[in-house]
Amino acid sequence: MKAILVDQFGGPEALSYREHEIGEPGSGEIRVRHHAIGVNFIDTYHRTGLYPNPLPLIPGSEGAGEVISVGAGVTSFKPGDRIAYQGTIGSYCEERIMPAAKAVLLPDAIDYETAAAIMLKGLTAYYLLFLTWPVRAGETILFHAAAGGMGLIAGQWAKSIGARVIGTAGSPEKVELALANGCDEVINYTSEDFAVSVRELTGGKGVDVVYDGVGQATFEKSLDCLRPLGLMVSFGNATGPVTVPDLGILARKGSLFLTRPLGAHYFAERNALLAGAKALFGAVESGAIKPHIGQRFSLADAADAHRALEGRKTVGSTILIP
């Protein structure tokens, strides 16, 4: 089968489309034929080696497809089952072998492309909004990159809870998209100081929680957006890793809390994964979340997908079609 492989860490040109042998599933494993594959910023970290993995590497952490065969001891899936997954590297391929414990059955009402567009981003939104800081009606949150795949899902979901959602985005078009997907107000960070704008929008009080997947470029100003005892959730570093050399900054800015969560910890147990998937699929089926696929690329053009993502030229979710 065909796959995208990385032989040496580097830029998008490091993504090589070629034949790859995968064999048969072993104990506790399933073989999956992809119908759609999700693209996420974490894939670029794996490609560059920021998050190092053994080489050669098939990147990608999210996909949807059908089960082709199962290994010994697998009783929860059978050939022909429709499944989706996130959180296990190796999705940029036509077919793959993966741990059965990482997959979930896909409801009939959710198609493969939608599933590939929401699994990683949607389950991240789930743990951020319901576990890291259980958002309650009436609270105010700030969500950076509100027009991205994660931002559109999180904005809609938070709004359905009853939160006031303030977002940031980098162009007038992205501002409008975020406003149409759950945000009450959206700040264009290319023309406004978002920290000043947040203070104005909240009457000087600040927000209860900031969700920041941007990283270095937004971290310190995000602290200025929080009310005393508020929580800074740094869940990504698209602009570079965050460093906090002086913890006293948290005290000076209001005895703030800071966390750097990972889905691998929230979904370490299968019951937690199933609970998150049930909540996510339910939100999609009810209409609380309306997934937005902004870009589709062929698997062979994965490098172009990475260039678009890193160049801030994407909106919503990006998927690859094998």
What layout of secondary structure does this protein have?
Layout: E1 2-6, E2 15-19, E3 29-39, H1 41-48, E4 62-70, E5 82-86, E6 95-99, E7 103-105, H2 112-132, E8 140-143, H3 149-161, E9 164-169, H4 172-179, E10 185-188, H5 194-201, E11 207-212, H6 219-223, E12 226-234, H7 248-252, E13 257-259, H8 263-266, H9 270-286, E14 293-298, H10 302-310, E15 317-321
Parallel strand pairs: 8-9, 8-11, 9-10, 11-12, 12-13, 14-15
Antiparallel strand pairs: 1-2, 3-4, 3-6, 3-15, 4-5, 5-7
Give a quick set of tags describing it.
27% strand; 7-stranded mixed beta sheet; Quinone Oxidoreductase, Chain A, domain 1; 6-stranded parallel beta sheet; Rossmann fold; alpha/beta; zinc ion binding; 322 residues
Order of helices and strands: EEEHEEEEHEHEHEHEHEHEHHEHE
CATH topology of the largest domain: Quinone Oxidoreductase, Chain A, domain 1
Class per helix and strand makeup: alpha/beta
Name the CATH class of the largest domain. Alpha Beta
Terminal CA distance reads 10 Å
**Poorly predicted residue ranges:** none
Instruction: Write the CATH architecture name of the largest domain.
Output: Alpha-Beta Complex
In total, the number of domains comes to 2
Average pLDDT taken over every residue: 96
Q: What's the overall geometry?
A: globular
Q: Give the biggest sheet.
A: 7 strands, mixed
Number of helices: 10
**Which radius of gyration do the C-alpha atoms yield?**
20 Å
Under CATH, the homologous superfamily of the largest domain reads Medium-chain alcohol dehydrogenases, catalytic domain
Oligomeric organization of the protein chains? single chain
Roughly what percent helix? 25-40%
